[in-house]
Amino acid sequence: DYASSMGLGYKDIRPLNQGIIYAGISGFGTQGPYKHLPGYDILAQAMGGLMTITGPENGPPTKVGVAVVDVVTGLYTHGAILAALRHRDLHGGQGQEIDTNLLESQLAMLINVASAHINSPKDVRERPYKRMGTAHP
Predict the structure, then answer these.
(1) Claim: this prediction has a pTM higher than 0.90
(2) Cβ–Cβ under 8 Å, residues 45 and 69
């Protein structure tokens, strides 16, 4: 990643401060085929399925009106930092590395929609998903 290439990655910083809480946010995480791609809210909304369920039932996929994936990823990261600070307090000053990304945060946002999809029979999962407008399943 970019920070590591500049000598500022977690592995570079940790020897200087064992208690460091090092948080990073990316588009797709630090592993996998998309790790080097830039992250954009609208891209995470599209790839993660949020646009599939957003908008009028018979309309095109629609992005949410605000950068909701960016906001939620920041909130998840905030919670992880707070947990890491508490862990450090309870475990002798031990720091941690936190890695969050837009796509995983967006997938987590789908909550019951994702659960219903994953637990549906294969023939149901392969059908196009209907947009719900303002409905709630």
Answers:
(1) no
(2) yes
